Amino acid sequence: MNCINVVLDVNTQKETAIERVIGMGNSKRGASPKSEKSDRPSRSEAEEAVRTLIRWAGDNPKREGLRTTPARVVRAYEEWYSGYDDDPRVYLQSTFEEVAGYDEMVLLRNIRFESHCEHHMAPIIGRVHIGYLPRNRVIGISKLARLVEAFSRRLQIQEKMTAEIAYCLNVGLKPHGVGVVVEAAHECMTTRGIHKTDVTMVTSRLLGAFRNQPQTRQKFLSALNLRGAIEP
Asked: Is 120 a catalytic residue?
């Protein structure tokens, strides 16, 4: 097997892995087999797990201030991890072709998100910037924000989330190119361990024209004040 085939094989494996993640939700909208839910604990089991953690931390889950905490934590988890119930591809099914020939970059900046790192389950809070070069059709900007929420409301690492958003948009919309930049603070680093505050992480995923055409790439990064800071 030569070098080119090795690279193509690696890229295919990456895309296949991302495809699995994109479609992994127990989707209320995009439906997946009930068998995938079979090993999901009940609400009462989840609440009991919270009580166990409270006892492990050294407190009493039966005292007044903590008595209803397990139920509140489980409700919070339903919101924080609601992305598992979403199929992000659904948001890309409604597009608009009446754009009067518009073929310049579309850029949505500063989409705020909250996620949780899969290593410590600590919050990741930041912003996503999405750009794409349309091919005869565009998508409603609220759908881009929903796309971010579908992936961020899961246990994540920032690098993977960045790639998932870009790949899903590229497959669903089939534009000339896609650019995604994510800037975020990780509380697993700011509130524990090394305790370094005021630190943010920047990740990017550039596809198509954003990766292959320097002028398009620089136009995108300049709009984010990142010109020259990110190369493919």
From this structure: yes
Choosing from 15, 183, 188, 218, the catalytic residue is: 188
The CATH class of the 34-80 domain is mainly alpha
Structural fold of domain 95-223:
GTP Cyclohydrolase I, domain 2 (3.30.1130)
Per-residue model confidence as pLDDT tens digits over 38-96 = 688 999 999 999 999 999 999 999 999 999 999 999 999 999 999 999 999 999 998 99
Known active-site residue 188: yes
And the tokens for 90? 């659904």
pTM: 0.83
| DSSP secondary structure string for all residues of 8-62 | HHHHHHHHHHHHHHHT-S--TTT---GGGGTTPPPHHHHHHHHHHHHHHHT--TT
